Amino acid sequence: MTSTASDILVETLLDWGVDTIFGIPGDGINGIVEALRTRQDKIRFIQVRHEESAAFMACAYSKFTGKLGVCLATSGPGGIHLLNGLYDAKLDGASVLAITGLQHHDLISTHTQQDVELDKLYMDVAVYNARIMGGAHVENVVALACRNALARRGVAHITMPVDMQSEAVNHDTRSERNVANHVSDLFARGALLPNDDQLARAAAIINSGSKICILAGAGAIGAGDEVAALAERLGAPVVKALLGKGAVPDDSPYTTGGVGLLGTRPSQEALEECDTLIIVGSSFPYIEFYPKPGKARAVQIDLDPTRIGLRYPVEAGLVGDCARVIDALLPRLDYKEDRSFLTQAQEGMKSWRELMSDRGTRTDIPMKPQVVTHELDKLLKDDAIITTDSGTITTWVARHVTMRGDMKFSCSGNLATMACGVPYAIAAAVAYPGRQVVAVVGDGAFTMLLGELATCVKYGLDIKIIVIKNNSLGQIKWEQMVFLGNPEYACELEPIDFATVAKGFGVPAVTIDDPGQCAEQLSEALARPGPVVIEAVVDTHEPPMPPKATLSQAARLGKALARGTPDGGKIARRIGVDVVREIV
Length: 584
What we know:
Layout: H1 5-15, E1 20-23, H2 30-37, E2 44-47, H3 51-65, E3 69-73, H4 77-81, H5 83-92, E4 96-102, H6 118-121, E5 126-131, H7 138-151, E6 155-161, H8 162-165, H9 196-207, E7 212-216, H10 224-234, E8 238-240, E9 255-258, H11 265-273, E10 276-280, E11 297-302, E12 316-319, H12 322-329, H13 340-360, H14 369-379, E13 385-388, H15 392-400, E14 408-410, H16 421-431, E15 437-442, H17 443-448, H18 452-458, E16 463-469, H19 474-483, H20 498-504, E17 509-512, H21 515-527, E18 532-537, H22 551-562, H23 568-583
Parallel strand pairs: 1-2, 1-3, 3-4, 4-6, 5-6, 7-8, 7-10, 8-9, 10-11, 11-12, 13-14, 13-15, 15-16, 16-18, 17-18
């Protein structure tokens, strides 16, 4: 049988180990879809309900598995819809290949239907971006796209005119320099390690410190044992960026949990008071939470040399895999006999956990959102995969879900986009059938890509979706009031009965609104096979308190309430005693 350009494309993907593609068929990619149909025993095509979801799924698939995530969309609007999810991959360093269609090669740029030159549109998002020019061009381009996405931990994009997709390869004249089969499907992993001088410089800086803090990010995932050994050697607390939540277990004696607005007070204090900072696989973007420049000497470990010194002025940069670099560094480091800085952080964590337990066991009506994640944490298995969306729900998950065992966690980090939580969970369930997968999402974000409930049903995915329903764009509401001193505006959401909506998709649903029944209802819902929607009706006026509330934040909140924030009196009463002990 004569091979088409699309056949070569799919065969090359198989050579690179691709086993799953997320997307939606369309007339601009009919040739590619046909090649997938004839190889459906070798490669899965997961049909989604929105191309944005396909890109989110490809991003999450890469994050959770370390493999290449692949998404497919048709010409014009289909390719445009991918972009938000692709920027999520770009900003979080996920390896993703996006495949799109183009209009007929001799009608491009002639105002034909869906005439969008997607390779031009993708110039910013992609580390590799190419238009296929014929059947003999396919293997070269696809191999390079896969290699670049994996090696550069970013988005690669290839697009092909629809008429070329079904073109017989032997009909395309090969140029004399394009020698057949000259490309390889071998991916060579880098083995960078710092030299002796760089290691010695870093060790001297660290050995001179007395209050050492380790900031671990996504690059530290898989290096948990090494980070713990580093913390033990130095008596250093480990603070974690959100994407590094799984780098070190939350029950480790060394970690003080998250950092930033949704972090913990002990983590913030450790960063404020340290005299030496070791940044391990992180480019945590909120510069205001780092030590003041000059307050601490810093060493950074990262696989990407362009990230060294990106957020904080470091004196030594160690480029390489975090685990291997730490192994090389450890023998040069002195054991710190003085454990007082670590002990101080551990004492702070005892108080913080008591505060979180107090907030998670409140019996108020309306139910506090923390109650849901507090009870969920007790029901999660040690190999559970947790996803969340962007908003106040990120805070509840970050603070109340305890990473342990072989648990995995992810969300949209640097892009912080809404709507990613359910697509992330779908990718996790596809990649790891049999593992417990839970998405904790807000009502605003869930509504955006609600159609993916159909995807859960279509593929029988065992996903539990917890919708924290406060009928508000909560994060924006509190930012308006606390950061700007403005009254809340345009954040109230029209209520949706998500339990009824879920049943329309054929998904069982339960509504939780009583904190006294929350644990039992959650347990029953998690035990049901297949997808389940859990609608948790919570207090819309519960604030995602920063780890250390300040007087200026309180003043701006007071100003916002005085200027006419809806339900200002209720908000003031809700916050009441909880805030007082954190401000004074």
